[in-house]
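hey so u asked for the seq, here:
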Amino acid sequence: MSDHIFSAAAYKRNGGFIHTDYAQGADWINTIVLAKDRGIRHIQNAVVLWRYSGSNISSLAYTQKAETIKGFLQFTQGVLDHFSYLKDRESSVTFRQMSDAALWNLEFVLTTHYRGIDLRNILPILFFIKRRFKRSFWATFKILVAINSKAPRLRVKNLLHRLPFLLKVRNQT
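ran it, structure tokens below
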């Protein structure tokens, strides 16, 4: 987290860093949690040395998406857990707004970063969205189709081709 600066006291209060599988969203959730008491500030004209390579986790996430998506779902759950205090507190931002923003982020990252959802992750993501965001089955299904329709056309064709089989298997269990 070289581009995120925070106090040692906040780090210790939190018990260290929050970890997600394959570090997916870990920098974001740590920033959110560590900024809870004092907020986030911007340092004008700050210079940060940052390296991008084809061998880091983020640049390869879409090639290992069956494994790395689990980490991003952990991040999304962390956001929902962290902001759950808004359910019981009056604020200018509601929990529903935070939940909607987290769902938008999940859709955006699954579409652009992971480049769609492969078959191994369809059911886990479907049930994650349905359960965590309290959406109906059909609303969740539409979200998944929208994600994959923005990904390569072949992915959509494969999803629609295999969907009856996936639903049949799910109904039998």
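The chain has eight helices and no strands. The helical segments are 8-13, 26-34, 57-60, 65-82, 95-112, 119-132, 137-150, 153-172.
lmk if thats what u needed
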